[in-house]
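Retro notes
What went well: the complex prediction finally ran end to end.
Inputs used:
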Amino acid sequence: MSETELTRKASHWWQSEDARLLGGLWAVFTVLGVIFALIVPDHLMGRSASNTMTEVERTFTAFSVASAPVAAVVWALLVYSLWKWRRRGDWTPDDPDGPPLRGHGWATGLWMFASSALCLFLLVWGLAALSSVDSPATASTPLEIDVTGQQWIWTFSYPDNGGVESEDLYLPVNRPVVFRVTSDDVIHSFWVPAMGIKVDANPGMTTTTQTTPDRLGVYHVKCAELCGLLHADMETDAHVVSSADFDSWASAQGGSQ
Amino acid sequence: MSTESLVNKEALAPEEPEDFGERWRTGVILIIVADASFVVALSFAFLYLRGINTQTSFHPGGTGVASLWWPWIVTAVMFASFVAYRFGLEAHEPGRRHFLNAGVVGVGGMAAALVLNVVEMYRFPFHVVDNAYSSAVWVIAAGNVFHLVITVFLGLGIVIRVQRRVTRGARDWHVRIVGIWYAWVCVAALIGAITVTVANGTVGCPLPPDQPDPGARSVLASSCSSSTR
Amino acid sequence: MTVAETYKTDPVKGGPDGGIMRRLNVGTGIAAGIILAFVAHRVVGHLADDHVHQVDVRATATMVGWAIGFMAGLGAFTGPFRWMVGKDLTHADELFLAGKDQGIGRYFRFTTDHKVVGIQYLVLTMVMLGAGGTMAMLIRTDLISPNSGFLGPQTYNSLVGLHGLTMILATIIMVTGPFGNFVVPLMIGARDMAFPRLNALSLWLLVAMLPVLYSAAFLGGIPMGWVGYTPIADQGPAGVDAYMVAILIFAVSTAVAGANITTTIVTMRARGMTWTRTPIFVYGVLASVVLALPAFPMFMAAEILLLVDRLMGGGFYVPNRGGQPWLYQNLFWLMGHPEVYVILIPAVAALMELTAVFARKPLYSFRVAVLSIIAIVGLSVTVWAHHMFASGWAPDLNGPFMLTTEMISIPTGGLFLVILGTLWRGRIWTTLPLMCTYAMLWNFIIGGITGIYLSDVPLDYQLHGSMFVTAHFHYTLMGAGLTGAIGAMAYWFPKMTGRMLGKTSGFVSFWLVQIGFNVTFLGMFMVGMEGQPRRVVHYDAAYHTGNLISTIGAYFIGTGMLILLYDVIASWHHGAVAPINPWGAKTLEWTVPNPVPLENFAVLPVVTEDAYGYGEPAEAEPAPVPARVGAGSDQGEGAMT
């Protein structure tokens, strides 16, 4: 939707030259923006390895597509104003002023309505995504894993498997998992980028996050909160393996299935 | 007069003191807004820590509980000082002597409150390092000391200025604005006292009989359950 | 004695002129500061000899001693003490303090003239931006390749934290400091600020703060980011004490400046300047300081509690003693979110002001502009916990905070509407100030949209703590905020210095900075989405491309800013002499001669209409008209709205 003032030339605002050119420019920028939105975020964020990350990528794309017309309005107006109304040289006091438009028209109301509607859309989408991420409906009982951060390593322990401890994270594919995260010293942040989950590791408290990994592979586990000297080194690997492989790994570590 | 003589001086007519007074009063109220935010932050800190009771260590049993008499006594003395000061201000016949006496009583009372506050802190049955509760009570008391130091400075200034006839009347705007500050520090002390009192209901447990706890308020045994520790 | 007489104060009797006050300047301040720091160091070192936290106690005492000594040596306390003993400053003293007949020396002492303080703030801001910018160049140089080894982790982490804090402090003051001080009293038709001595105090406190802040580099650095989260801040060396004392000094300066500016704008506008005729820049500055007044004491409280923990072993943030790091985060972000609007609103308001001038049109929808600013101020105190979505502190509150955060996009969009509407069908003169408006709109739409992503909780779980966040806030604070400040400086330069800013260098610098800026931070969005965390001294090879792009962009920014610095200094020194109103603007500051006289206006103006009457038929006189005030006219009521 373009934003115009009542003009003196055309009897209807959509007939004015300004409106048409601007509308065209807006349409072009919107199309470019939507194409960008559909391709670039997914490409950068990589292939999703969990249902959570799928939701994250979908939300990112949806918000980008929704933002494209908004950004396009601003860009179109910027470009058009410079092309159409720019004066050359230096201003002198003899130059006439522009039209005294103070903005008491309907454009303001339209703008506010549109931005409120967009905000409402974002909110509804966001709340829906939040509830599916924070409180997912899971068919099977989730696997519980205790995550402990300390300067500067991650330790994972598996109470469901007899207390196996490991510095690498092993996960069975397609099984919901709940991470109970804490810290032994300062605040760290447990982050698996490919799975779209992150929660701070706080000393003296336990926080939780959950997801269902749905793709085999090896992914990074990183620390996302500056925790001292070797914060940049506080990384390990998350191995998503088949259930059978997970059980054999757990036994090999000395735990139970 | 201070720098106001340079400010907004019309070509021929000097500015009315009421305009200065309005300006100074606005400024002091704004400073008080900032200070109030700080006081609220301290109160919030205390109540939040008590609410979340990390590792049930906000105030584990066996350590001292601050006596509740002290903060209320200090607050009462401060309020009395403010009333004395205000009594001087509000005197119908703004005779200098009348105000001077009330002003002296006012600043004297605040000085007494300062002494009482420091004594209170000496008599805390804990150290600031013991736990979050003791740190928070200590900081709230220390904040009040800081307020009182500033108050005594301002009160002394007013008394000296009235004595030296630099500030003329009891309704001079310097006097009124210091009165606003007096009122504020009383409110701040009240907020501190309420915070500590409200929170005290569930902290602390009777110490074992072989550890007498001078100054500690004894807590009803029925209000102490192991789950609140 | 009549009632009216009781309201009169006596003229000063007690105080003699001058004396020690006239010999004090920044040199005596530094000397006194060093002496008191040394004394505090020895005395406290002796008293705290066996203390567990001896190093921190001594460091803190030294820094506080420096600050108090510096201010005393500068003469900041003469006023209050002379008040207390009843020997007020004389009129001659006040004129001296205002810098009358002192030439350039008045910039080096405790001068109260708002124009002097404004220039001092400008220089201070440029110094801080230069220091922070240099640190940024070092950081980006280290990140040019995945494991460059250019900086060790301790140095890198400290640089990141000091860069962050320097830039935050610099951007907070960069518009309200120089232009809030120099321009606003002129713009509202006043002779000075409400509290001129407090004005000087707020500036010199910042000067006192700088050595304290940078002493952190010699005290072991700071191991945490600029936010200073506990418990890592508890762990850090004495550099953390420097960080805390610097913040305490800054908080006092801001509170004082906030009270000063608010009182000035509320009580000292010219006669006839009702709120509907008050320029939008004044609203922007007012909103910023009104927001800062309750917000910064929260920061101060967070740091004082940390000070108690570090120096006295308190338990505020130590979990096994009932303390809670989330307390710090809450107190911090209660300040931290309003603070970004403290930075942003004056910059955008300055751009709104100058856009009307260079589009030769009234400001579009002035009411929307004011209401949007008020709405942003109101909403900004309800959103703070969106910085803590991933902290786990209160998962049930994530939804409500998402709601309030997304709602801020509506009034922010209102500001866009105002600027775009002002440009619409205008006669657009693409001067450097107006180009900054264009750059701001471009940058802020990106910054704002990426903020929407971060306000969505599931997205924030993924993006928090990554370089995406870094790129977002640089787009808003630097792309919109700093760009706005540069525009403001280019716009008001002729009035503040009496010279025109060199055009060619200005444009070269503009394009280098803006193109470099976008390259730098688009590269950061890229690596953030790919999974690079923040504040890391080295990173996975997979993120090399994005980082290389960012570093190259950063060098463009650095070059551009150096050219701008050169332009400012060269133009100040020998630029073209500026006419009184080179831009044909209609606000009051453009009616006074260059250089602006000490008392600003020979006769205080009376305002009859707002400052946006472009294109409107001038009937009697264009507004505002300095009133011809006769000798016998009644001005006694001093009626201000």
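What we learned: Residues 6-10 of chain A have pLDDT under 50 and may be disordered.
What to try next: split runs per interface for comparison.
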